[in-house]
Predict the 3D structure of the following.
Amino acid sequence: MKKFVKLPVLFCLFLVFLVISPVIAHSSDQPHQVNIYFFWGDGCPHCAAEKPFLESLVEKYPQVKLNAYEVYYNESNRELFKKFGDALNFEPRAVPTTIIGDQYWVGYIEEYQVEMEAAVQNCVSSPCEVDPGAIVFSESEQEKGQEKHG
């Protein structure tokens, strides 16, 4: 009689494993979207030099999304730049400024490429601990809600 009790239990465990294993595999194998926030100025030579490198990261890592904001001529992008500075506790003073996770680079030199790609790789393998865009854009939505209701 004990064999008959064990067989249904084992069968049930096997079914649970079949249902759960794709979920586990999907969550651990699935790459995480990585946002790069690039604040640049129209006519800035350092910005123009950095942009092709950032675009190459997008091509190399399909889960990377480049969010570029021109700040010389776009006032709302300048305000957004300030909000990103507040979220990461830095004074946004110069372009290019590039933000990946909780790291940021002001200016552009070729040596930054290694650091930026390492930051992308870290965020691809496990989600960035911080995505300042999520903070900034959720605050913006909250502000809009307060304006409508307040």
